[in-house]
Amino acid sequence: MSVDRILVVEDEKLFAQLLSDALSDQESIEVSMASNGKIALEMLEQGEYSLVLTDINMPEMNGREFLKRLRSA
User: Fold this and answer.
1) I need a surface site. Which of 30, 47, 51, 55 has the fewest CB within 10 A?
2) Edge-to-edge strands of the sheet including 51-54?
3) How many helices, marked H, and strands, marked E, lie in the chain?
4) pLDDT tens for each residue of 15-37
5) Angle, helix 63-72 to helix 37-46, in steps of 10 degrees
């Protein structure tokens, strides 16, 4: 059975954890978390994800800038 990997990019720790817990209820889903777009880009360089969920308002690199850089990569 293959495992789908989801990356949650969210700076609010409680919300990120609640979202991660809800998504990881399935055995075939692995959820990783990043607190900003900069960290998320580094994680995406290290491995592939089936889905990326991102917040828009974050420190260091907001969600719009993150998506812009992700598309150009």
Assistant:
1) 47
2) 29-34, 4-9, 51-54
3) 3, 3
4) 999 999 998 877 789 999 999 99
5) 30
